Amino acid sequence: MVTIADRIARLGTETAFAVSNEANTFAAQGNKVYPFHLGDLNLATPSTVVEGSWKALQEGKTGYCPNAGIPQLREALAADVSASHRVGYGPENVAAQPGGKPTIGKFILALMNPGDEVLYPNPGYPIYESQIEFNGGIAVPYGYVEGEDNFGLDFDSIERGITSKTRLLILNDLQNPTGAECFPGEHERLADLVRRHDLYVLTDEAYFDMRYEGTSRSFVEQPGMAERTVILYTFSKKFAMTGWRLGASIGPKPIIDVIAKINVNDESCSNHFIQYGAVAGLVGDQTEVKAILATLQERRDVLAEGLNSIAGVRTYVPNATFYLYPNVTEAMANLGMGDYEEFRRAVLHNTGVSFTSRLHFGRAQPAESEKYVRFAYSGIDTDEINEGLAKLKAFLES
Questions:
Q1: Boundary-marking domain end, from 259, 283, 307
Q2: Is 61 found in the same domain as 25?
Q3: pLDDT digits over 244-279, tens only?
Q4: What is the 3-state secondary structure (H, E, C) of 252-292?
């Protein structure tokens, strides 16, 4: 018998992949599936990135490269993010990563000691909770409340969660799964809490550039917060590069230096030739990037209109991300269902519509009474959205 290390029992997972496997099994049995479950993209990576990577590959950029990333990428990212975030970053503030997820774990490793408490969003990306607990921290959830136009931060739960042991706060503005973004004044209120309690912040900005209306604003714009905050940057969303695995940690040099040192121990360096493709994507023509956004906006609008036409279902229409997080409390009650998994599987087997539920984004909190599911529209075309919604509507209103 193999004895597995005790810490593995504290390691969570991304359960949306289990939903994907279930949907694939259902499809393999000859059933039509409408895949709203995974936040993957069925859109092509822009040719600027592809051609830039291919050129670097042909030039032999296939060996080790600097642990924090090639200088050209660090410079290009620093300039791009400085302009969009209205702050001043240099290449020394950037460390390339093999995707977005590594920044989460490395931020925690760099700043959290075992026994420290970390505030994290719940519902939220499940890797936050997993990495906090795996590394010996105490994960303290905070939630969201329904507002007039979108979900807002539950400041009561944030403030209740702060103790003398609280060390870090994770913020996912333009959020997965809810689509929430901080309302005017929320960044200021958070910054006040951070200063008063001497916290450091990870701001997950995976969807910062996946925006259809308005302008994204970053928490680092608040006075003094750039010195306390690490940005999670990823190429996966904006450039449709989910499988390329490239991202970056951006923040104060002392923390970025530690993250770069962890790079040495974990993966040595991010993929060499792909970094050149990322540079080409950042500085090159943005026509194809804008086309990705236009396609996603069309899908969002069709999906939101369809969901809001179904009895017992209501959803906000967020200005960013590629998710909708409809309230299905009434729809579940109409079917006599109170269990998320019973509802999800009933919908899949009766309509082929596959989605994730609130339970795939952290442990449900005791006070929760409303029911939510998440629809991702990044990997499904508009005609299939319409087809799947027609079947969903017929089933839920039957």
A1: 283
A2: no
A3: 999 999 999 999 999 999 999 999 999 999 999 999
A4: CHHHHHHHHHHHHHHCCCCCHHHHHHHHHHHHCCCHHHHHH
Phi-psi region of 179 (alpha: psi -120 to 50; beta: other; left: phi over 0): left
Q: Is there a domain that residue 90 lies in?
A: yes
Indicate whether 1 belongs to any domain. no
Q: What is the pLDDT of residue 18?
A: 87
pLDDT tens for 18-76 read 899 999 999 999 999 999 998 899 999 999 999 999 999 999 999 999 999 999 999 99
Low-confidence ranges of the chain (pLDDT < 50): none
**The pLDDT value given to residue 150:** 94
Query: pTM for this structure?
Result: 0.95
For 143-176, give the DSSP string: -EEE-SSSEEE-HHHHHHH--TTEEEEEE-SS-T
- Tokens read off for 302: 């069709």
For position 366, what pLDDT does the model report? Answer: 84
- As for how many domains the chain has, the answer is 2
C-alpha distances in Å from residue 84, one per residue of 79, 217, 365: 9, 8, 35
First to last CA, the chain: 52
Name residue, tokens 């409303």: 370
- Give yes or no: residues 132 and 198 share one domain: yes
Look up the domain containing 27 and give its range.
Answer: 6-44+288-396
CB 321 within 8 A of CB 300: no
Largest CA distance in the chain: 62
- Name the domain boundary from 227, 253, 283: 283
Give residue 184's pLDDT.
81
Q: Write the pLDDT tens digit of every residue in 285-302.
A: 999 999 999 999 999 999
Identity of residue 75: E
H or E element in which residue 324 lies: strand 323-324
Q: Is 241 part of a structural domain of the chain?
A: yes
The partner residues of 170 in beta bridges, in order of sequence, read 202
185, 180, 184, 190: which is closest to 228 by C-alpha? Answer: 190
Report the distance separating Cα 208 and Cα 93, nearest Å: 18
Which parts of 6-125 fold into alpha helices (H)? Answer: 16-28, 47-58, 71-85, 101-111
